[in-house]
Write a structure and sequence with these properties.
The complex is a heterodimer of chains A (about 450) and B (about 400). With about 450 residues, chain A is α/β, with parallel strands linked by helices. Chain A has 13 helices and 17 strands. In chain A, strand 11, helix 9 and strand 12 form a beta-alpha-beta unit. In chain B, helix 1 packs antiparallel against helix 8, helix 3 packs parallel to helix 8 and helix 8 packs antiparallel against helix 11. Classes of the chains: A alpha/beta (about 450), B mainly alpha (about 400). Chains A and B meet through helix 1, strand 2, helix 3 and helix 4 of A and helix 1, helix 3, strand 4, strand 5 and helix 8 of B.
């Protein structure tokens, strides 16, 4: 066999190989092999349906991710009729009866977003392409939420955002296939501003430390807008990398900057580290401009409070949900979560659990897994009994509108979980903003995409 | 054939066959079996295998031939990715302009970095490239955020201009990357009994690009230019004593391998139009070094194999969670089941790096020449046996002639 000369046989062989290579992608496009798809991506079979839980298992938000996964597992159990049913019993819609979704048993796959847009998209793609997930949910970072939401829009599956707080998720980067139950920085600003005014007055100088990605920018922008309207002055704002670990070099200049309020636009492990270090530096015992120095954490969570220990005493912030809420839904969820895992759920766990239930309910009401049917069922949907009081999924931007909690770190917590006390429940009307709010107006939903 | 000698032609045909039939090879387990977990025949995975293969093959042109170990190659991948997404944003969603601009942008960028870094060799060269790559990463992550999107990554938006393509689809969505109207994300599934094979347009497009690039690489390896590069590796001083200036050769190799990386970056965004700064991080640069060493430095097929193994481990092992482990060992008694799960758990899921580390150590300690050396040893083992057994019967088959 010699390849040095062009032979008739060689040409034919090469030709055939090239032909197959070129034809392969188009060879099977015929309807002959159509496999029961009914007009949308990953149509589930008759016995089971697969959901994709894409959460951070490593990195600065790993604690939130672990808690989200617990909540998802609980939600799947409840949907499949195992356990005590949790919020299925308090949900204002009574369509979910523990027989899975539309009679199909709920199965799930998990992935690690690594709080990294690239990795999160790769993980979500493998769930959609390999595991046939019909819906992707989870995440604890707005950067990731926006990235995965865009992917789900292109792939034609529903994205039920987990913990994502930046305005962009339902603002600039909103997509028709994406839905967010969690609140956003605009709502945090409008809920927190009156409380901050009451506590610290209207003549303050603020110093921002901001996580350097879309959530941090959004958070800083909202808080700046609202505090500057109060008459506060912003002395400086410094961007810090996500997962920095050590914030001492960012905190050192704060004391001599002429600021008397430090606003930490951090979350997860970053907030634990920066807040602990700020307290260790003695910022809270300091006087500046003749006032007591104050620290504000706009987005607070019980998990972070646990990590930061005594540093959280008397620090104010906002949160989406807290397990100590007295309503029936919150209590039912806290009870079943506590029974399963031995401690109360975090706000991340709550929003993920609720999102799964809302999706299951929307599919049931629509009578179809088709993303477009689900979108229609969720748009303008008004519900109650899931822990936040009456809630609306607004049709124009796929954002939930509900009460926002302003919380404070307890000075003398009774136990290791009872760390936050609710200062005020800001009513839904007060945090509702217009669809054409300047921070949100750039975005366009596009239209729902059912995929293949 | 095509100006290749018999051995190279055979290798090239093997690679072509692997590329064409990858959807079958990579999906050996039926959908319903528990082993389906190990199937890698889904579009994202196949595209990744080919793209990282391309990246590693390009890296090997520099590292394998000249011996210059660059620790900053991910920077070129990143530059290619950003250039590609910008083409999608500004010009059109057709992938060809994006790929061309990605390759050129990475080429120019590597010319700049190579021109400076190649003034030193050995460890100093490695450190220089590493420093440049980290600089690029920091720039992309927090300085040039209007161009790179920072942590969030550079993404497409509905209101991007896309001056010569469609700005939005009729339904008001962002159009998907396509090749003259053939969308990259479309695919067809063939169900054969319990097996299901997916043929993706994006994969076959990437495979064609890879096949062309690999052909170029073989020709380059066998060319006088390739010989010069090998001379740089074996003894640069001797080369300069004979009156040859090594710098233009090494710079050319650096730029070519940077362009390969840029092309890989462009392909990455063609499959999934988002560019994140993380793909420029030093760990990404380290990964391509690992791929090349794991497969076999300086060999043609080695980097492809190394890229395959690492990409596969990352994608498959990292998605195994404790529930799946419990399913595997559910046949065992409870105590034993938990014991096995606890033993294996650190090596799967987020601990997949541990598995990678073990594989890498094993290969480097026992097979310093990488997987290719392993293959040669096995082949040697069998062919020696055959020769011995061939020697006994009198009518032994003729040994293959040298021309074969």
């Amino acid at each position: 066999m010699s390849f040095s000369k062009v032979s008739r046989r060689g040409v034919m062989k090469t030709g055939a190989a090239t032909g197959v290579a070129l034809a392969a992608p188009t060879l099977f496009t015929g309807a002959v092999w159509a496999d029961g798809h009914t007009g949308f991506t990953n149509a589930p079979g008759d016995s089971s349906v697969t959901l994709g839980f894409n959460v951070p298992q490593t990195g600065a938000y790993a604690d939130e991710g672990a808690d989200e996964l617990r909540a998802y597992q609980l939600a799947v159990q409840h949907l499949n009729g195992e356990g005590d049913g949790g919020m299925l019993n308090t949900f204002s819609e009574r369509n979910l009866d523990g027989t899975g979704i539309l009679g199909r048993r709920v199965e799930f796959v998990t992935g690690d977003t690594q709080t990294n847009s690239d990795a999160a998209r790769a993980s979500a793609r493998s769930m959609i392409e390999r595991d046939g997930a019909i819906m992707i949910t989870g995440g604890s970072s707005s950067g990731v939420a926006v990235a995965v939401q865009g992917l789900c829009q292109d792939a034609g599956v529903i994205f039920m955002a987990g913990l994502t707080h930046a305005n962009d998720t339902t603002g600039k980067d909103r997509r028709a296939n994406g839905f967010r139950h969690f609140f956003n920085t605009e709502m945090t600003g409008s809920a927190l501003a009156p409380i901050l005014e009451g506590l610290y007055g209207s003549d303050r100088r603020a110093y921002h430390l901001t996580a350097d990605y879309n959530w941090g920018w959004s958070q800083e922008r909202s808080i700046r807008t609202y505090t500057e309207n109060l008459g506060w002055e912003t002395v400086n704002s410094v961007l810090t990398p996500v997962g920095a670990g050590d914030f001492s070099s960012y905190l050192t200049p704060v004391a001599n900057s002429g600021a008397d309020v430090l606003i930490l636009n951090h979350y997860g492990g970053d907030m634990v580290n920066s807040l602990t270090q700020a307290v260790q530096f003695g910022l809270r015992d300091m006087q500046a401009n003749g006032k007591d120095f104050a620290v504000v954490v706009p987005l607070f969570s019980r998990l972070m409070a646990q990590g930061a220990g005594s540093a959280i005493a008397n620090i104010h912030g906002s949160t989406n949900w807290h397990w100590s809420l007295p309503d029936e839904g919150s209590q039912a969820f806290t009870r079943s979560f506590g029974t399963a895992y031995g401690f109360p759920p975090s706000q991340a766990a709550h929003t993920c659990y609720v999102q799964t239930l809302l999706y299951a309910d929307a599919v049931t009401r629509a009578g179809s897994f088709n993303p477009c049917a689900v979108v229609e069922a969720l748009e303008g949907f008004e519900f109650d009994g899931l822990g936040n009081g009456p809630t609306l999924y607004r049709a124009e931007d796929h954002q939930c509108f509900k009460d926002v909690l302003v919380v404070r770190g307890k000075e003398n917590p009774d136990n290791e979980y009872d760390l936050l006390e609710i200062v005020e429940v800001t009513a839904r009307d007060q945090v509702t903003y217009a669809v054409d709010h300047p921070d949100f107006v750039e975005g366009q939903l596009g239209s729902c995409n059912p995929g293949a | 054939m095509l100006g290749l000698n018999a051995k190279d032609a055979r290798l090239y045909i093997i690679v072509l066959v692997m590329l064409i039939f990858a959807p079958f090879f990579l999906n050996p387990f039926p959908e319903t079996s528990g082993l389906a977990q190990f199937n890698a025949g889904y579009p994202d995975m196949m595209q990744r295998l080919v793209i990282f293969g391309l990246f590693a093959v390009g890296f090997n042109i520099l590292f394998g031939l000249t011996g210059y170990l660059s620790f900053g190659h991910a920077a070129f991948l990143g530059v290619g990715s950003y250039a590609g997404v910008w083409m999608f944003k500004l010009l059109t969603m057709n992938v060809l302009p994006a790929l061309i601009v990605s390759t050129i942008a990475a080429g120019l960028f590597s010319l700049l970095i190579g021109y400076i870094s190649l003034r030193r060799s050995g460890i100093y060269f490695s450190i220089l490239t590493l420093a440049f790559a980290q600089m690029c990463y920091s720039l992309a992550y927090s300085v040039l955020t209007p161009i790179t999107g920072g942590e969030t990554g550079l993404q497409l938006a509905l209101d991007d201009p896309r001056i010569i393509g469609t700005q939005q689809t009729a339904e008001g969505n962002i159009p998907v990357p396509h090749l003259f109207g053939l969308p990259m994300n479309s695919n067809t599934t063939l169900d054969l009994g319990a097996w299901s094979f997916t043929f993706s347009v994006g994969y076959y497009f990437a495979a064609v690009i890879f096949a062309l690039a690999f052909y170029f690489t073989i020709r380059l390896f066998r060319s006088p230019f390739g010989l010069m590069l090998r001379a740089v590796k074996s003894n640069q001083s001797r080369m300069s004593y004979t009156g040859l200036n090594a710098r233009p050769y090494t710079l050319a190799a650096f730029v070519i391998s940077g362009m390969f990386a840029g092309l890989a970056g462009g392909l990455m965004v063609s499959m999934d139009p988002l560019a994140g700064a993380e793909r420029m991080l030093w760990t990404a640069s380290g990964e391509v070094v690992l791929m090349t060493i794991l497969g076999g430095v300086g060999t043609l097929i080695g980097p492809i194999l190394g890229a395959g193994v690492i990409t596969y481990l990352e994608a498959i092992v990292s998605t195994i969670n404790s529930t799946i482990l419990h399913e595997w060992f559910s046949g065992l008694p409870d105590g034993l089941e938990n014991f096995m799960v606890n033993i294996l758990y650190p090596f799967v899921g987020k601990g997949w790096h541990l598995t990678l580390g073990l594989v890498f150590m094993t290969v480097v300690i026992f097979l310093p020449g990488g997987i290719v050396e392993g293959g040669r040893r096995i082949y040697g083992l069998f062919s020696r046996k055959r020769r011995q057994s061939d020697a006994t019967p009198p009518n032994a088959a003729a040994q293959p002639g040298p021309g074969e």
